[in-house]
Amino acid sequence: MLRLLPTHTVRLFCSRSARGISSRALATRASIQIPKSQRAIVYETHGGPLLYKEIPVPQPKPNELLVNIKYSGVCHSDLHLYKGEWPLKVKLPLVGGHEGAGVVVAMGEAVKGWEVGDLAGIKWLNSSCQSCEYCTSGHEPVCSTSVISGCHQDGTFQQYAVADAIQAARIPKGVNMAEVAPILCAGLTTYKAMKESGAKAGNWVAIVGAGGGLGSLAVQYAKAMGFMVLGIDGGKDKTQWAKSLGAHEVVDFTTVPDLPRTVVEKTGGGAHAVINVSASATALQQAFAYVRPTGSIVLVGIPGKPIIDLPILPTVSRQLKIVGSMVGNRKDTQEALEFFARGLIKSPVKVAGLSELPRIFEEMDKGVILGRYTVDTSK
Ligand code: NAD
Ligand code: ZN
């Protein structure tokens, strides 16, 4: 059910002006009504209740945008964080989520180049220092002071969220907001992983986890970039799904008798690049047996127990490259969004209400979701 929220207008901003909201910003905000409170999914402990509740609307800092989130994709990383599976410092209580597509409704006084009404995306990387050696060389996801949405600060499973104006993504006008949301993490991450793989047009790229959220987009980015695509996932539904999205070949890891041999046969000698977007350490381990000599294995998925045995001799003698890849930088983000806006990538999301997040997490945990869920924050 849609809930009508109490609203307060620009007058509130006038009363906050002593806390740093400029007259320029005030002028641009005059027509926008921003409620005092909003609906969000909040958890207080890892694995604890996911509470659908009313919380205050955050106030943007001088460098931040306040974005009215319309849709947020639900990423497996949100589930890992909720379960406390990774050794990351997580803010608690927390509003998760990092694939938020929405509209700018306010901004801090130091923000440049954004207007109220612009479409904005809130990503995993909410902010970074912009001055360290990584930020200044296009590697801002590894900035040691980076702030992660839905981890270090409240994310996009709420109706209003803040993001650093420099890191926020510019969503092209006219795109479907429910469909563009997953591009902000799943699309960006897989597009970047493809670039990092070093694969060339015509090469075979194996997507491990091809029927999931990242995999569904990875198959399409790979195809759009001119690669031959082999999708691996479990069950008929997922492999057929990957095929319907454009995979040239698919392999069902739950039924194939000898997975490495099958992949080597189907690719005429092994995959030139393996992009592991599954959260399975076993799947990653297997990749060493079917990657082509001189090929690359790109690690994207992060299992709860993220350790495998590195087969040293074959890695050395077959001259393999092992690459870690995390989300992407601002340029990668805009490129991934352009592929989507040009119609090269479909984002066949299932839309649900924000209040349904607990059920979505349960389905994700069971591994039964085809593709990606996007939640409508108004429901
Ligand atoms: P998802 O649950 O939607 O998809 C995972 C898919 O992997 C599922 O379809 C599942 O059936 C499949 N799978 C499981 N075991 C497999 C196996 N042995 N072989 C092949 N496929 C198998 O999850 P998602 O949202 O796509 O995220 C996937 C992983 O990527 C998660 O670990 C997530 O945290 C991680 N991730 C990493 C980054 C990054 O920047 N590195 C960004 C986003 C997500
Ligand atoms: Zn994600």
Automatic annotation (TrEMBL):
EC number, as in UniProt: 1.1.1.1
Needed cofactors: Zn(2+)
Keyword Metal-binding: yes
SUPFAM superfamilies: GroES-like (SSF50129), NAD(P)-binding Rossmann-fold domains (SSF51735)
Assigned GO CC terms: cytoplasm
CDD domains: CAD3
Domain Enoyl reductase (ER) per the UniProt entry, residue ranges: 47-375
InterPro entries: ADH-like_C, ADH-like_N, ADH_Zn_CS, ER, GroES-like_sf, NAD(P)-bd_dom_sf
Record's keyword terms, sorted: Metal-binding, NAD, Oxidoreductase, Zinc
Enzyme class: oxidoreductase
Keyword Cytoplasm carried by entry: no
PROSITE patterns the record matches: ADH_ZINC
Short name of any one Pfam family annotated for the protein: ADH_zinc_N
SMART domains the UniProt entry points to: PKS_ER
A GO molecular function held by the record: alcohol dehydrogenase (NAD+) activity
Family membership noted in the UniProt record: Belongs to the zinc-containing alcohol dehydrogenase family.
Protein name, per record: alcohol dehydrogenase
Organism of origin: Candidozyma auris
